[in-house]
Design a protein that fits this description.
The protein has one domain: Glutaredoxin (3-Layer(aba) Sandwich), CATH 3.40.30. The chain is built from 6 helices and 11 strands. The chain has a 5-stranded mixed β-sheet with strand order 7-6-5-10-11. It has a two-stranded antiparallel ribbon with strand order 1-2. The longest helix has 23 residues. It starts with a helix and ends with a helix. It holds the Pfam family SCO1-SenC. Keywords: Copper, Disulfide bond, Metal-binding, Signal. This is Thioredoxin domain-containing protein. It comes from Mucilaginibacter galii.
């Protein structure tokens, strides 16, 4: 009986530690950073300012304007694609569907898929693309806008996109999913063509949802 009781206590303690580890887990912050010195209560304090995603303005599959402010209070995932892509995009978005299904009822999680071929990917084309994937509601937005603005924004996400007549479909782009926190900071990158990376992304989104207030406030 003593052994059974001790075993149960040890299991309970291990479970508690494991749970606390998950709650207290912290993801890294990617991108450039710089120290900034300021005066707080008469004392010089050095703080770190991290790279954030700049403002943008695009239109989603419903014809609604989406900008940086539209994501205030939300954790979100971004990727770059085009609807006529014959290579990695279909694989990426099959994997992203798992993320969408997990968080489609979560008010604080969004997915942004930026078209790199806005001349073809009009609002109706994006809506048709979303419908074929089975995407409804306001969790996953397919966005289009000026090509120059989209390509410039991709640099802020630390990914590259470009036109290339020799490439399949006429474009070259990263297949990465980029995880952004509520402060618009990059917190993770995931290979969108790998199902296991989609699983890791789901786990990391949950980690951000439970992130300590001290990290959120930075």
């Amino acid at each position: 009986m003593k052994f059974t009781l001790l075993s149960a206590c040890a299991l309970l303690l291990w479970s508690s530690c494991s749970f606390n580890d998950k709650i207290n887990a912290v993801l890294p912050i990617y991108g450039s950073r710089e120290p900034v010195t300021k005066t707080v209560n008469g004392k010089q304090v050095t703080d770190t300012v991290y790279q954030t995603i700049p403002d943008f303005e695009f239109v989603n599959q419903y014809g609604k304007t989406i900008n940086r402010k539209s994501l205030d209070g939300s954790i979100y995932v971004a990727d770059f694609f085009f609807t006529s892509c014959p290579s990695i995009c279909p694989i990426m978005h099959r994997n992203m569907l798992k993320v969408y299904e997990t968080f489609k009822n979560a008010a604080n999680v969004k997915i942004l898929s930026h078209s790199i071929d806005p001349n073809h990917d009009s609002v109706p084309v994006l809506k048709n693309y979303a419908d074929k994937l089975g995407v409804t509601g306001d969790t996953w937005w397919f966005l289009q806008g000026k090509k120059e603005s989209t390509y410039k924004l991709a640099e802020s996400y630390l990914v590259a996109v470009q036109e290339d007549s020799k490439a399949a479909g006429g474009f070259v782009h990263s297949g990465y999913f980029i995880l952004i926190d509520k402060q618009k900071r990059i917190r993770g990158t995931y290979d969108g063509t790998k199902p296991e990376d989609a699983d890791k992304l789901i786990a990391d989104i949950k980690t951000l949802q439970n992130e300590p207030q001290s990290m959120i406030a930075q």
